[in-house]
Amino acid sequence: MRVPHWAWVLPLVVGLAASAARAEEFVVIDSSGSDSPIGTVFAPGAVVTVPDHGRLVLLGASGQVVPLTGPFEGVPSSNAAGSANNRVFAAIASLVRSDQKETSPGAVRSTEDPRIASIKWRIDSAKTLTDVLAIDTSNGGETCLYDLTSVRLMRKPSNRPSKVTIHDRYGSALAAIPWPQDAASLPWPAQVPIADGQSYLIELEGQSELIKTKIHLLRESSSASSVERVAQLADSGCKVQARLLLILLATTSK
What we know:
By secondary structure, this protein is α+β, with helices and mostly antiparallel strands. The protein has helices spanning about 5-20, 85-100, 115, 120-125, 130-135, 225-235, 240-250, and strands spanning about 25-30, 40, 50, 55-60, 65-70, 70-75, 135, 140-145, 150-155, 165-170, 175-180, 185, 200-205, 210-215.
């Protein structure tokens, strides 16, 4: 029995179409032992090479994180069923590419760049989303939160003040609370109401400089992925927290 020529051509065409549909753009969000630095963008269908003992972590336009361990050479695939999320991908690609111009997130762990060294302790201590969202009493800055009822304060491990004072920058509320030496974090003091859009001054005992932080309350979706949260934090101006969450995501991906 002769098989019509279209009987084998059709599956081939369908297979090629499916393969093309799965091809997507990728950006490097972590890199070690590779010639592709963080922020490198690979076009759909591009061949990626990871040398022996090297590692790349890619983020696809679909929002999927793809870790590659060398030796590897081929076209990465996220096996994602969903369509591309261009807004999320663009936000994260912009974040890591801007970091590459200064000092990339993955390089943070080994650089002495003063712009990054100040948050290195946070990178080392950020193990959960709660750690990422904590208010940095050592550096301050823009702080994004999803819940104003469970706010925590964090301090640099090398800086162990016995007291922290919180001021409402434009009000009269003030709280001075003890900070036990063995406590890495503390709950936000109830004596100072915390609100979206408000700024606060933080005074650590023994530190001459007042630290300022501004609060941004974000709307959280129960179905939001960690990647979507990174983009939301970056879009809201909380780039340090976005970097921390992205690094946490990249280093824990398998």
